[in-house]
Amino acid sequence: MTYDSSTPDGGPEPDELPRAVEPMPRDVAAVVVTYNSARHVAALLDSLPDAFGDLTYSVVVVDNDSADGTPELLHRRSDCDVVRASNDGYAAGINRAVLASPEASTILILNPDATLDPDAVPRMLEVFRRRHDAGIVAPRVREKDGSLSPTLRRGPTLGRVGGLSFTGLPVFTERIEIPGEYEGEHEVDWAVGAILLVDRRCFDALGGLDESFFLYSEETDFSLRARDAGWTTVYTPRAGAMHVGGGSGESATTHTMQMLNRVRLYRRRAGDRRAWLYFGMTIVVELRRAVLGDRKSWSTVRALLRPSIRPPQLGASTAFLPE
């Protein structure tokens, strides 16, 4: 907060107390959650000035108890505010970063292993100015080698539980891999949450991200709840970014979280009867992957069948059908 204690001609006003002047809201509040992200986060932060162009913005990074030197790296920088936190999960970290950010009309959710192209954020923001029902905007994302990263998704259904992307049929796959779907601006059910620009009114109306997911499915849940409330998720190819992926590491535990959360999300949206079918089909899919050589899937199958060994962070160990 700043204070203005002078009169129009520059002289003091002895009989009046200084007047508080509230800072102007920013255009964008960028929020990042790090967890052992020392290899990547500097590149993200370095990309932001050009990515924002002439927009006003803030950057808040919440570090979820990293042990690889990430907090020390961040504290040596002057281009972000750092909040150190216990690891309550990705969604909790994003919500905490938003609370710690100055007022802004939009929120830019960023993974630490992403980088943004010049002027990417103004191009995303422009979608809000044209489409008043838009609550979330996703950019065109490429892999490290420059190839298209298929970040667009269809909503979860019983038909899509197997992830049969090779069929090319929308009824069987959530992931959209058709190149033509990435050429023009259009609405989508949801998009991978590595880079998302969110209208602050939408974020507040939904109460932020659902922290019960801990890791994975929080962006799916958020976009689908936004759609329920009348907000759309819009993809624009005019804004570009790169996402390395796996910046915080991948393991059998994180894979198990991912699959359990898919079941939990489906149950919350479709009800118990269909969720039992979805759960059973998930077990079959993971068993098939395990037999074909995916060692992580063996751990996931065991966790699906034995609630007591599920990751405790999810709070899904008290019932056979994940809640």
TrEMBL record:
Region (Disordered) residue spans: 1-22
Organism superkingdom: Bacteria
Keyword Transport among record annotations: no
Residues covered by the Glycosyltransferase 2-like domain: 31-154
SUPFAM superfamilies the UniProt entry points to: Nucleotide-diphospho-sugar transferases (SSF53448)
MF GO annotations: transferase activity
Swiss-Prot/TrEMBL keywords: Transferase
Protein name as catalogued: Glycosyltransferase family 2 protein
